[in-house]
Every structure is written in C-alpha cells, then in structure tokens.
C-alpha cells in the first residue's frame, strides 16, 4: 500500500504528513482512509501528547481530488459520498481528540484542505500562503466540518462572505480574522508548529482535553447542563495526577511538572 499519510514521532509529539505532493496533497479515498486510521490510533494512544498535521512539498492540501472523483466508475456523486465518509471520520477524531492538534499550513490550503485546517485546534501559517474555501467556485458545498467550524471562528456574517465570494485569504487577513493562530516566515510553519506542540505537550494535557471538549460542546449545550458538566470536569481534573501536581506546585510555589 502506498504511504499517502506519513507519520514521524519525536518523543511524545507525532507529525502527520499528507503525502501526495504531485497532486498538491489532494484528498482521495485511500489517503482519507489512512488519515482516519492514523488519527483514530493517535487519539487512543496516551503516550502521544500533541499532534502536528502538515503536507509534503509545496502544499498543505489542495482539497478533494476532483480528477479522482470524476474518474470513478460509480460517478462523482457516489465518489464524493464515499470520500466524505472517511474524511468526516478523520475530522471527527481530530475534534474529539483529548490532545492538541496543530495544522502547519506550509502551502496552499483550499477546499477540503481549508476544512481540514479549521478542524485543528491551532493553525500556523506561512506568510506567502493563501487560504481558500474553493468549494462554491466549483459548484459544491463545504464538507469536512467547515460549515461548523468556520462560523464559530469568524462569525456567521464573515463566514457567509467567505462562502459567497470565495476570495483568496492572505495570511495577514487570516490572522486578523482569527482563522490562524500564528503567521511565520515561509519555510518555518512546520518548525514553529512542532515547537508549539512540544510546549503544549509539556503542559497539563488532561486539563487541555477537558477544556477542548467543553469548548467544542458549548455551542450545543443548554447553560445549566453545560455548567454541571464543567463541575464534573473540574472535580475529575482535580483527582487526576496532573491536577494533583498542579495543585501541589501552586501550594509549594514552584513550576508544575506535568510530564510522567
């Protein structure tokens, strides 16, 4: 099997590398099967504390492989239906993963690549790169959770503008709109994302995981039910070794050591 998603581990940080550089890392069914399998395994591996997602070559991800979809004998509608199933499994695992996931946007992120980047918790973007939603210019509708994450990041009005006009979004504009966490010089996106991952990995990952889950679910919860879940999470974190270390460090006026 061709390795369309490569993995590299550096202690407790894993880098996932989309590996179809000749197609600007466009998404086909085989690549999405591999990505879904990798992120599902990473989510279940407690020895991994942070993840970086990037692309091989000049692109982060140019979106769904339209040539692949058009070449499928069952037709493009069925091909997209099959592709989206695996894509959405991967995106759901990223959303639900109780550890930070950082997109290193080293090159173009368009269509499904745009949605995939938005699914991550943080985004580090190279200065000369543009983001583009791209779906509507091809007569398609956004998938990969893009219609869920985009309005939560930039607001409904701005999301509608991005959807309707599909203009390229520069790194400066992306930073101003909150679409990315950090803009770095070209060639440094992966390096900066890995440094961020190491910093996060050294922190209280159990605490981060609960906060990520609560923030993700906050838009879909009634207030009283949500704060009751917060109360449970707070107590659970206090009982966890990470929480106990944090409390001891506070009492002893020292920096906590969360790593095992």
Summarize it.
InterPro entries: ClpP/crotonase-like_dom_sf, Enoyl-CoA_hyd/isom_CS, Enoyl-CoA_hydra/iso, Enoyl-CoA_hydra_C. Helices cover 50% and strands 16% of the residues. By secondary structure, it is α/β, with parallel strands linked by helices.
Protein model, in words:
The chain has helices spanning 29-44, 66-71, 76-96, 112-119, 146-154, 156-165, 171-177, 189-201, 205-217, 223-239, 241-251; strands at 5-10, 13-18, 50-55, 59-61, 101-105, 108-110, 122-126, 130-132, 169-170, 182-184. Helix 1 (29-44) runs parallel beside helix 3 (76-96), helix 4 crosses helix 5 and helix 9 (205-217) packs antiparallel against helix 10. The chain is built from eleven helices and ten strands. It is α/β, with parallel strands linked by helices and 260 residues long. The mean pLDDT is 95. The strands form two sheets. A six-stranded mixed sheet has the order 1-2-3-5-7-10, with helices on both faces. A four-stranded mixed sheet has the order 4-6-8-9. Helices cover 50% and strands 16% of the residues. The chain has two domains: 5-201, 2-enoyl-CoA Hydratase, Chain A, domain 1 (Alpha-Beta Complex); 205-251.
